[in-house]
């Protein structure tokens, strides 16, 4: 599958949700149109064909991730569990600097902010 960035999985839905709330609160006008255009640009041009859908396999992994972390005595935030489940279901590698947030889940993780080990 390749590398999955937490930006693509997490930030875009948060962006869309928060911007949708903001958009709904804005009166019709130039500012609203500008923000709508920017969100459309991000979703349809910058990240076109880069979205991973939440499918049945991801939903099953989500439940396993939550249960696994509870058994470890380390509850996981819902959005982190969703990220982990998506990565597991896709057979991908996760690129994140928040490595400890995903510990104990059997994920392949790359921290793009660390230098690769020499050897």
Please describe the topology of this protein.
Blueprint: E1 3-5, H1 6-25, H2 30-46, H3 56-71, H4 78-90, E2 93-95, E3 108-110
Parallel strand pairs: 1-2, 2-3
Explained architecture:
- The structure is a single chain.
- The chain is mainly alpha-helical.
- It has two domains: about 10-45; about 55-110, Rossmann fold, CATH 3.40.50.1010.
- About 55% of the residues lie in helices and about 10% in strands.
- The chain has four helices and three strands.
- The chain has helices spanning about 5-25, 30-45, 55-70, 80-90, and strands at about 5, 95, 110.
- A three-stranded parallel β-sheet has the order 1-2-3.
- Helix 3 packs across helix 4 (about 80-90).
What number of structural domains do the residues give?
Answer: 2
Largest sheet: 3 strands, parallel
Instruction: Please count the helical segments.
Output: 4
CATH architecture of the largest domain: 3-Layer(aba) Sandwich
Could you write a compact summary of the structure shown?
The chain is mostly helical and 119 residues long.
Features:
Rossmann fold, 3-stranded parallel beta sheet, 55% helix, 2 domains, elongated
């Amino acid at each position: 599958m390749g590398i999955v960035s937490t930006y693509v999985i997490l930030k875009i839905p948060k962006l869309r949700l928060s911007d949708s709330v903001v958009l709904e609160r804005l009166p019709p006008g130039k500012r609203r149109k500008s923000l709508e255009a920017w969100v459309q640009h991000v979703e349809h041009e910058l990240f076109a064909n880069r979205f991973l859908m939440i499918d049945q396999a991801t939903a099953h992994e989500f439940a396993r991730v939550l249960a696994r972390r509870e058994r470890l005595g380390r509850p996981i935030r819902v959005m982190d569990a969703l990220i982990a489940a998506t990565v597991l279901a896709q057979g991908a590698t996760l690129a994140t600097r928040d490595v400890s947030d995903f510990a104990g889940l059997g994920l392949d993780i790359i921290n793009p902010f660390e230098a690769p080990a020499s050897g």
